Structure formats: structure tokens, C-alpha cells
Amino acid sequence: MELSHILDDLNDSQRQAVSAPPSNLLVLAGAGSGKTRVLVHRIAWLIQHEDYHPNSILSVTFTNKAAAEMKHRIEDLMHTSTGGMWVGTFHSIANRLLRRHWKEAGIAQDFRIIDSDDQLRLIKRVYTELEIDEGKWPYKQAQWFINGQKDEGRRAGHIQAPELDLYLRNMQRIYQAYENACERGGILDFAELLLRAHELWLNNPDLLHHYQQRFRHILVDEFQDTNTIQYAWLRVLSGDQVPMTIVGDDDQSIYGWRGAKIENIQKFKQDFKDPTMIKLEQNYRSTKRILDSANQLIAHNPDRLGKTLWTDGELGDPISLYAAYNEHDEARFIVDRIEEWASSGNSRIDAAILYRSNAQSRVLEEALVRASVPYRIYGGHRFYDRLEIKNALAYLRLLSNRDDDAAMDRVINTPTRGIGGKTLDMLRQHANEQNVSLWAAAKELLGSNSLTGRARTTLGGFFDLIQQLDSDTSDCDLFEQVDHIIQASGLLEHHAKEKGEAGEARVENLKELVNAAKQFETGTMPLSALQDQDADLELSPLSQFLDQAALDAGDLQADESHDYVRLMTLHSAKGLEFPLVFLSGMEEGIFPSRMSNEEPDRLHEERRLAYVGITRAMKKLYVSYAEVRRLYGSETYNKVSRFVRELPQEHLEELRPKAVLSMPVSTKPTLISSKSNIEIPDTGIRLGQRVRHKLFGEGVVLNYEGSGDQARVQINFENEGSKWLVVGYAKLEVL
């Protein structure tokens, strides 16, 4: 049979992997090395050269999109249908097995699969049944626990909870009741699909033997992302009978926080019989400078299987390193570079801005909005569209206007405070009948005898909470008001209870909202949306801030344009590639995160995440960091990330000399005599002058950019250190 169409377009390593004997094979595939092509051609080789029937091949992917693409490419290569071939995700293959063998699996024939939202609703019903207080044991915490146990292959009955471990005892109790509820309703969640499929093999040796005879070869993509139950399922099915081809990259294992085990790819050589390892190191994506930088960075991680990416393509541009004054300067720099890129005839959609934490997107989004640059958040929501931010803003709106029904409806039970459905129905009905707001209806009901004791207590508690929040913050600055409300309302604690990175991200976003409020009040946030506002409208700072947030949330929808910049976290960027990439916020404490400094394994995963970010870039890579960044309500002076220091210096170009900013060591700022007495155009302010700011006190003007109201001035404040402020909004008093 003519096989040239399978091998001719491959490089030597790819050809070696595709045509390897049908035994256990580990293909260590670097970023951009053509791993999908190898998998597709390997399947075609097994069918056309090794004479395997398509029905005898099982290929496992991690997304439905990848599975569909693989089927399409196999059919194009072989000019035949893949109808009998098993190609799909772990979950889809598990579902296929359980639908065929529901009786052996001990489940209902017409079982229903529920998603994460439905699972959470079921957990809430379990809480009601068990009379468990959600305030002490959040729903999300139980959901995380149940899924985590299933991913490790543990049933509720397998958990041995010590008498004094109240947390584990409660979680086991919830897990057991949840299992019973699923059993009664014929329900399977996503984690249950995998666990049931694994138990199907363990409990039915004859059935396992049947499939070991049927499948002659198993292929698995993204093997470094497998968790415990997926690895166990594959190991049992393969046994010593069915050879496996696994494709993965230990240097791109970045999902440890959601259960992926990097050791799975490292254990393959010990757990599977006589495996061969072939490395795919030739990269078809990036320039030589980008690859050399990625190689030198990842070499700092221990216990790697080891590979070195290379290309026969161009050397490429140096990696540009920008040391920004602060996060606003960083955002402006990035937007300016994107506009230069677009004005040179390139498409904005070929540009991506990557960051470690979702909270970092706010300042970037504001800069894009101000410059009228369309953008889209990839795999997530824009800052003011995020659940926790909407919750916080709803509290603020209710304080600003008690008759805001939408705000009250959103927060009256967020966090959960026991106000029942009947009470809410009565409240809404009374508001409709009397044609008053929900707040006014609550006030009237509390003043009557219409409510039962419990309803009166819970609704009255919420009513008193809002009044107390208003009283406590009446004389506070805006950022203090926002900070107090986020904490005293229970929102911060509520979202912090979500396990894993989701909870951390929500907390970071809420703290970033405090930053936004402080920058709004001090004039360091550009307020173009309010510039034309009538000066006689004496709105409170809170009302102005809420207006700005609403305008930003509704401004510049990316869908209006097909040429938009993409913003995303580094985790969301995996598997993607862009001609132009910006890695922002490359500072110690942000990336790598503070917590990773205490956990070596976590630091290694952070470095792998940086490696993923670098290897997303095809032609041009910018790396930026801020010397001063407002983080969690205060100015921080961060060192540049160790990941930047680990890059080869010969491949870096600094776009400006690093400006040294440090905390003041004395109460008298040092003047730069060579710049003293220079007038900042159209401002009436000179370098070296002393000025006073409402919040930061007295300081000396050291530097500036621009002119007029849009000028930015650097001021060294006696008690607050160096800050950059926009003249038009800072309301500086010249002394």
C-alpha cells in the first residue's frame, strides 16, 4: 500500500513517532511541534500499515473541539470515514460505555448527566434536607470536596473521618447524602461519569477483557493534564495487553490546581511495559530568540523529562522589556504598541495581552476603552461583568439609592441569610400592589404584623445591615466605603470560601474594586466618560463612581468589531498562538504569586505557566512590569519577576532605562536640581514645586509627561512615596 502521503510531510522525529512499532510509546511534544499532526498520522499509519481496523482504535482528547478536529483530519488524510473509531474526551467515552453497560454499572438506563450549576442546586437541596448552615459550610466548598474525592477515586464510604475533624465529618455527611440523592434521581455529574467508568472495569472482569480484546491501541493527547481517576482508568484498560501512545509535555503541565498530576507523564515509563520515548523538539511557531528564552527559563525546573525547542526559522526580534512607572503606564504602553501594530497594516485580532490574574484586566480594559480599541476577554468576563463585582456594585447602588430594586433583588440573599422564597414572594407582591420599591415594601411589612417571627428576623436583619453600612461609611473616603461594604456585607468572606483558584480570583477582583475606587477618587484613573458632566450636578463620589462603572461595563462591546484585541489569563492561553503577545505584570508577588514562594511544586508550576506564555508568541513578544503597583488598596514596590531575570539577557532589549523608585527615607523629598523650575506646559505647575493633595498630603513634583489637564506628574509625597497623577483630576494645590 502506498504510504507516502502519511510520512512525506513530516520531519524526522515526527516520522519516527508515527511509524514506531505498535507498542507503548511516549511522545514528548514541545510547544508548536505539531503533536496533533503526529497523532492523526499515527492513527492513519496503524490502520493502513499495521492493518488495524478503525473500530480497534481508541483515541482520547481533552476537548470536544479537539476530538472533532482529529476526526476531520483523519478522514481528510485517509479519504475514508472514521465512523467506527472511538475518538472523544474522557467524559464522552465514559458516557458511551455507561450507556451501553448501564446494568453492569449499576445505574438507571435513562440516567441524566448534570452540569456544574445543576450539581450545585442539588447540593443546596441536600443542605436543606440535612439542615446544614450554608454560612458555616458554603455550597461551593462541598461541591469542590465531592468532585475532588471522585477525581481521586473515593466514595463517601471510603472516607475515614476522625471524631475531632468536624470539617471532614460534615463533608462526608454531605457527600453521602448527595450520593443517595443522585442514586434516587438517576443522576450522574461529570466526575461521576469517570468514576463509574473506572468501577465498570474493576467490577466486571469479563467486560474489561472484552474491551481489551476489542481495542488494539489507545492514544491519549495532553497526557500531562490527566488526573488520578483518568490515569487509573487508562492503566486498568490497557493492562499488559493494549499498547498506548501518549502525547504530552511535562513543561506545559499547568493545571495542578484542578487535579492534574504532572507525575502521571513521569510515571508512564515505570507503570507501562517497555515504553519508547520520542521527543518532538522542532518548533514551527516561534522565532529562535523566543524559543531560546523559553528553553533557558524552563531549565530552572528540576525533574524534567528534558527537551530543547529549536527552529530552522528566523532569529527574530529581541524580546522587548518595558519597566513601567505603574500599572496605568504599563497599560498605556501596551495599547500604544497595539495601535502601532494596527497602523502598520496588521490585525488587532493577532495580538493578545496575557496576565496571571483576572484582576489585572481592569486597568488594561480601561486603557483600551479610552483609546477606543475593541477587545474581548477570552474565556472569561470583563471586569465589571464578573459575578463578585456585580454583587459588590449592587450593595453600593443600594446604599446610594434605596429604591434600586435590581440592586436589592440581587443582594438581599447574597450571601445567603435565610430569607425564604415565601418571604421574597410576599415582598415583591406587596411592592407591586402598593406601587412602591422593594425597600419601601420591606419597611412597610416590617412595620406591620404581616410577617412571621423567622421572616421578620431575617428580613429585618438585612434591613438593619444596609442601614448600618450606610451609617458606618457616611464620613469615609470612597475607597474606604467600598472596602468596608465588601467586608461588612460578608461578600469577601462568601467568595473567599470558594476553593481553588476561582475563590482566589474572586477575592483579588473584589480588592481590585477597592483600588479602582481609590484611583477614581485621587484622580489617577482617567475619567473621560465624565469629563463633560455638568459641574453643577453635585453628585456624591459614590454616585460618580457607580456611573463610571456602569459606563465602562456598557462601553465598547467587542462584538461590534471583527478586529479586536484578545485579553486572557495565561491558563486560558494554552493551546493558542499569536503573532504579537504581551506578558504583563511580570513582578514578584504577582507572577510568581506570593503563595508559590512557600511551595516549591507550586513555584515550578508557575514557571511552566510562564513558559506557556512565552511560547504563545510567534513573531514579537513584549514583557512588562510596573515598578509601583497599587495592589489590594496600597502601593507596592515590586521587584521584577525572577522569570524575567531567568531569561537570556542577550535576547532582551530594554525600551527605556529603569527608573528607580523607592520609598522615601526622609520626610523631605530630594529635588532633581537639573529639572527644577521647568514649567509643565499649560498647567501652572513647575518641577520642584511643593504641592498638596487631598489624600496624600504634601509632596514635590519630580517629573512629568504630556501637557495641560491630561499631563501626568510624578510627585514624591512625604508620607506616601512616589506617585504618578493626572493633573486634570488630582486637584493639586500649589504651595
Detail the topology: elements first, then pairings.
Layout lengths: L3 H4 L4 H7 L6 E5 L5 H14 L8 E5 L2 H15 L7 E4 H11 L1 H4 L6 E2 L2 H15 L8 H13 L14 H20 L1 E2 L1 H14 L1 H10 L2 E4 L7 H11 L5 E5 L14 H9 L4 E5 L7 H11 L20 E6 L2 H17 L7 E5 L5 H10 L4 E3 L9 H14 L4 H7 L9 H14 L3 H9 L6 H20 L5 H11 L2 H6 L3 H23 L18 H14 L10 E5 H4 L4 E6 L16 H15 L2 E10 L1 E4 L2 E4 L4 H4 L6 E3 L24 E2 L4 E2 L3 E4 L3 E9 L6 E6 L3 E6 H4 L2 E2 L1
Shape: flat
Low-confidence stretches are: 526-537, 555-560, 657-676
Tell me the major beta sheet. Answer: 7 strands, parallel
The average pLDDT value, as a whole number, equals 86
* Radius of gyration from the alpha-carbon trace, in angstroms: 29 Å
The structure class reads: alpha/beta
- CA distance, first residue to last residue: 90 Å
Count of distinct strands: 24
Sheet-strand content, in percent, reads 5-15%
Our count of helices gives 29
| Helical proportion, percent range | 40-55%
Strand order of the largest sheet: 11-12-10-13-14-9-17
